[in-house]
Amino acid sequence: KLLYYGPGEKPLFIGHYWRQGTPRPISHNIACLDYSAVKYGRLVAYRMDGEHSLNNGKFTWVRVDKTEQ
């Protein structure tokens, strides 16, 4: 069976998907925080204030740049 996470559920944060681009919600209550930081992507967080619908403007991140060693 496929799992279903309904639109009435609390916000859910997931990882291990190595997304690319600018962090944003996948749906109004699901967001991935894995933006490939170990492959020089973004280390992402979300500023949660108890909202039920996730907001693009509440993602924050730092870019992980490749540095010569």
Describe the structure.
This protein has 69 residues and is mainly β. 0% of the residues lie in helices and 26% in strands. The chain contains no helices and five strands. It has strands at 12-14, 30-32, 34-35, 42-46, 59-63. The strands form two sheets. Strands 3-4-5 form a three-stranded antiparallel sheet, with no helix packed on it. It has a two-stranded parallel sheet with strand order 1-2. The N and C termini lie far apart (47 Å). The model has no long low-confidence stretch (mean pLDDT 91).
Structural class: mainly beta
Strand content: 25-35%
How many helices in DSSP terms?
0
Based on the structure, what is the oligomeric state of the protein chains?
A: single chain
Which ranges are low-confidence, i.e. pLDDT below 50, for 5 or more consecutive residues? none
> How many angstroms does the end-to-end distance come to?
47 Å
Largest sheet: 3 strands, antiparallel
Strand order of the largest sheet: 3-4-5
Classify the helix fraction into a percent range: under 10%
> What is the C-alpha radius of gyration, as a whole number of Å?
14 Å
Could you tell me the number of beta strands?
A: 5
The secondary-structure element order is EEEEE
In round numbers, the mean pLDDT is 91
Gross morphology is: flat
